[in-house]
């Protein structure tokens, strides 16, 4: 595989961008080798600067659920651009967007648009603190909620990959207010709440965790958190930046049948543009400025072009429920193929999946939390990642990420992915 142009760009980038990338996990540090610079993407494919073409399973870390260069979304953006790129004043698309979100996710009665998932989670926690007049929050080991200071404690995603789950730069004062518990361990959360009675403002959780690899909640876990929050006056925040509009049109909360007080959103909601949102019960959302005292603002919040992209995306998903069945069937097919390959080649692996999200962990343990996720052989993952690239399939460059399927993955492509997986696993065995 020729990667000269990517390599040259990376060398130039390292001189002027920290680590040569604008988000750490893109640097390929966990898997070895240099990042590929992408010049174009279309449907299910990424095309790099050296004209290599890959079937891709990241989809910009989730947003591109309809594949790249979707005509509906691109047309909506082109139309919106004609009216100016930004107003800094309210526009009708923001109203349409809020109406659509509150229809699709009924636990959201009012919603505020922001420009990233990080902004959404930071604002949601500030709101919960302002509403309850309490300081502490509980988060889960291996969950990632963006790079807000309060969340960089036992954090997932690139923070695990690069060995900074507790980042320098976060003050001890902030860290003291973030308590952590293992995912899927209700007793640990109940104990924390009892030991800090009357002090916990919020429990924030990815209802389906995607940032320590994919980990699904066990039966009763989320419902147990709901009951605990109701009993203790704690605000339950579901961070659905990844799962919102992906696992169903009503997000993870719809399929798992548990309603949070606040939901944070991002990724798909922007159709590929930088958008986030947080919303929930009216009573809580009316604490947000200017309705209430909790301050939060944004120069580009509700940006008309971003709203146009997001509206086109959400309108499509809202009116095409068959999308989710298709995505689930394709994902099941790929995961079954991977499991068969692992068995045939005698490689230890566990495939976690839900809807159109999945992770192949190189461990024979059941992966139900961060501790079990960490039993994966990450060196083996690195070799597998590179072998898959050679086979023309682009994966997330870390064991601790979920993969995402888009509607552009046809049954034929699913077959190709399974075959590539077999060849890559075999190559990894031969070179062990
Ligand atoms: C669950 C979750 N929350 C929050 C974020 C932060 O979103 P963003 O990267 O848009 O700031 C991410 C992804 O990065 C995420 O996966
Ligand atoms: N896991 C992260 C978000 O979902 C990966 C994206 C990033 O940090 O660049």
Automatic annotation (TrEMBL):
GO BP: protoporphyrinogen IX biosynthetic process
Alphabetized CDD domains for the sequence: OAT_like (cd00610)
The protein's enzyme class: isomerase
InterPro entries, A to Z: 4pyrrol_synth_GluAld_NH2Trfase, Aminotrans_3, Aminotrans_3_PPA_site, PyrdxlP-dep_Trfase, PyrdxlP-dep_Trfase_major, PyrdxlP-dep_Trfase_small
Main subcellular location of this protein, as a coarse class: cytoplasm
Entry keyword set: Aminotransferase, Cytoplasm, Isomerase, Porphyrin biosynthesis, Pyridoxal phosphate, Transferase
Catalytic activity: (S)-4-amino-5-oxopentanoate = 5-aminolevulinate
UniProt-listed SUPFAM superfamilies: PLP-dependent transferases
GO molecular function: glutamate-1-semialdehyde 2,1-aminomutase activity; pyridoxal phosphate binding; transaminase activity
Pathways involved: Porphyrin-containing compound metabolism; protoporphyrin-IX biosynthesis; 5-aminolevulinate from L-glutamyl-tRNA(Glu): step 2/2
EC number(s) on file: 5.4.3.8
Subcellular compartments: Cytoplasm
The protein's required cofactors: pyridoxal 5'-phosphate
PROSITE patterns: AA_TRANSFER_CLASS_3 (PS00600)
GO cellular component: cytoplasm
Residues recorded as bearing N6-(pyridoxal phosphate)lysine in the entry: 267
Family per record: Belongs to the class-III pyridoxal-phosphate-dependent aminotransferase family. HemL subfamily.
Subunit (UniProt): Homodimer.
Protein name as annotated: Glutamate-1-semialdehyde 2,1-aminomutase
Organism: Sporocytophaga myxococcoides
Lineage: Bacteria, Pseudomonadati, Bacteroidota, Cytophagia, Cytophagales
């Amino acid at each position: 595989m020729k990667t000269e142009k990517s390599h040259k760009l990376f060398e130039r980038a390292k001189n002027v961008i920290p680590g040569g990338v604008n988000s750490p996990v893109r640097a390929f540090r966990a898997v070895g080798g240099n990042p590929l610079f992408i010049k174009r993407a279309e449907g299910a494919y990424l095309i790099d600067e050296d004209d290599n073409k890959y079937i891709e399973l990241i989809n910009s870390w989730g947003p591109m659920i309809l594949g790249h260069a979707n005509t509906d979304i691109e047309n909506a953006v082109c139309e919106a651009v004609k009216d100016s790129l930004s107003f800094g004043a309210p526009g009708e698309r923001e109203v349409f967007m809020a109406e659509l979100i509150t229809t699709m996710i009924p636990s959201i009665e009012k919603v505020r648009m922001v420009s990233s998932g990080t902004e959404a989670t930071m604002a949601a926690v500030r709101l919960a603190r302002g509403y309850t007049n309490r300081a502490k929050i509980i988060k889960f080991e291996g969950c990632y909620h963006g790079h807000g200071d309060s969340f960089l404690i036992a954090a997932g995603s690139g923070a695990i990959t690069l060995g900074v789950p507790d980042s320098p730069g976060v003050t001890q004062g902030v860290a003291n207010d973030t308590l952590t518990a293992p995912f899927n361990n209700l007793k640990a959360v109940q104990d924390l709440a009892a030991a800090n009675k009357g002090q916990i403002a919020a429990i924030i959780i990815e209802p389906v965790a995607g940032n320590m690899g994919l980990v699904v909640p066990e039966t009763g876990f989320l419902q147990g958190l709901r009951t605990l929050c109701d009993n203790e006056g704690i605000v339950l925040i579901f961070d659905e930046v990844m799962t919102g509009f992906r696992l169903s049109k009503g997000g993870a909360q719809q399929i798992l049948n548990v309603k949070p007080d606040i939901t944070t959103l991002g990724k798909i909601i922007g159709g590929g543009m930088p958008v986030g949102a947080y919303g929930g019960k009216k009573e809580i959302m009316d604490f947000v400025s200017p309705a209430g005292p909790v301050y939060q603002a944004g120069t580009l919040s509700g940006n008309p072009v971003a709203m146009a992209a997001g509206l086109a995306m959400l309108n499509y998903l809202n009116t095409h429920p068959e999308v989710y069945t298709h995505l689930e069937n394709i994902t099941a097919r790929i995961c079954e193929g991977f499991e068969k390959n692992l068995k045939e080649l005698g490689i230890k692996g566990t495939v976690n999946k839900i809807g159109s999200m999945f992770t192949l962990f190189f461990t024979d343990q059941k992966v139900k939390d961060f501790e079990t996720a960490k039993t994966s052989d990450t060196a083996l993952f690195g070799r597998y990642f590179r072998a898959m690239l050679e086979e023309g399939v682009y994966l997330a460059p870390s064991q601790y990420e979920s993969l995402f399927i888009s509607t552009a993955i046809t049954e034929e492509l699913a077959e190709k992915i399974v075959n590539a997986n077999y060849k890559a696993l075999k190559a990894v065995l031969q070179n062990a």
